[in-house]
Amino acid sequence: MVILKKTWMRVRWFLAEAIPFLFLGVLLVNVLYTVGFMEWIARIFSPFFEWWLAIPGEAVVALLVGFFRKDLAVGMLLPLGLNAGQMVVATTVLSLYFPCVATFAVLVKELGMRDTLKSAAVMAVTALLVGGAMRMALIG
Question: How far apart are CA 134 and CA 126, in angstroms?
Fold first, then answer.
């Protein structure tokens, strides 16, 4: 019974901390789309992602959205017509590179900004290395 009580307390705390950031993430994604920021940043990173991960530039927007909403990002990959290898690479990178903004907020609270940014850098590098390795193995 004690385990259930502790689990419920932790789940309740996470939801209380995370839900506002989920809504903030949705709002921020919409604002960034509206002002054209997502497309602009995608154009900057598209050549690298096309070369290193062999995924089309349009997928970069989905990967960027993944920081705010992982569930939305996977849905954005579907209409791009990626082949099986590209889809595996893109979803793997999406899964590895960083948790959503709500988790980021909790990490900042738990670890502090400096250690959270270090964690983010490690996860981003790991995601890109794994994604590149997978691209070489699956796509060539």
Answer: 12
Token digits of residue 73: 């990002």
Domain boundaries defined on the chain: 2-138
65, 93 in Cβ contact below 8 A? no
Structural contact between residues 53 and 89, judged by C-beta atoms closer than 8 angstroms: yes
Q: How far is CA 63 from the centre of its chain?
A: 6
DSSP secondary structure string for all residues of 5-71: HHHHHHHHHHHHHHHHHHHHHHHHHHHHHHTTHHHHHHHHHHHHHHHHT---THHHHHHHHHHH-HH
- The whole-angstrom separation of Cα 46 and Cα 55 is 9
Give CA–CA dist 112/136, Å, rounded: 36
65 and 29 Cβ atoms separated by less than 8 Å: yes
- The C-alpha angle with vertex 35 and arms to 32 and 40, in degrees rounded to 5, equals 75
Q: Tens digit of pLDDT for each residue in 125-140?
A: 999 999 999 999 999 8
pTM for the model: 0.78
